[in-house]
Amino acid sequence: MAKKTNKSKTLPIHILNGPNLNLLGSREPEIYGKTTLAQIGKAAAARAKSHGFSTLFLQSNKEGELVELIQAARTTASAVILNAAAYTHTSVAVLDALKMLSVPVIEVHLSNPARREDFRHKSYVAMGATGTIAGFGLNSYLLAIDAVAQIIKGKKT
Ligand code: DQA
Fold first, then answer.
1. Which of 18, 34, 98, 118 lies at a 20 to 30 A Cα distance from 126?
2. What percent of the chain shows pLDDT beyond 70?
3. Which mutation among 87, 88, 138 tests ligand 1's pocket best, with the greatest number of atoms within 8 A of CB?
4. Average pLDDT over every residue of 6-17
């Protein structure tokens, strides 16, 4: 019998970034480092490629736009990696959008909010995430990609 070929294309990992992350590199470098968002996007694409995935890397300063990007991921992403930045600590709308996803969701942060001001200790995103990676700078994103690859490949075997 002829072997079935699986030509279905793997959906990209959506990596979504919230407010003020567009200014990484010059924004509070003592906390967030000197790496720019563009450099993170490039490194993330390379790491994802090593696992056989592509990425869609986006940033918005607007809460409603982030909600729309999360909604769109329902049918267009194989996973979502989200650094919601300040909206992490305030946005029920982002949490409600995440709850509609059936793909893995990894919350990431460059810094470790648990070591910072009290208001950063609450994460609405965490309540809608598969897991959280924080405190490793650029590496938080790369570890999140490794986690996504493991989750998805684990499901297939
Ligand atoms: C951040 C942590 C948030 O508390 C903060 O509002 C950010 C960046 C991080 O990546 O460390 O904007 O999400």
1. 34
2. 94
3. 88
4. 85
- Angstrom CA distances, 61 to 52, 111, 113, stand at 30, 19, 19
Residue tagged active-site, from 14, 51, 87, 109: 109
Let me know if 32 is a catalytic residue: yes
Lowest mean pLDDT among 4-18, 88-102, 103-117: 4-18
Residue 107 is given by DSSP the state E
DSSP code for 96:
H
Q: Where are the alpha helices (DSSP H) in 35-108?
A: 37-50, 63-76, 92-98
Let me know how many helices (H) and strands (E) the chain has, helices first.
Answer: 5, 5
Which residue's alpha carbon is at the smallest distance from atom 13 of ligand 1? 85
pLDDT tens-digit readout, 66-90: 999 999 999 999 999 999 999 999 9
> From residue 143, how far is each of 23, 24, 81, 110, 117 by CA, in Å?
22, 19, 10, 11, 25
The residues spanned by each domain of the chain are 13-156
Q: Which of 72, 94, 97 is nearest to 83 (CA)?
A: 94
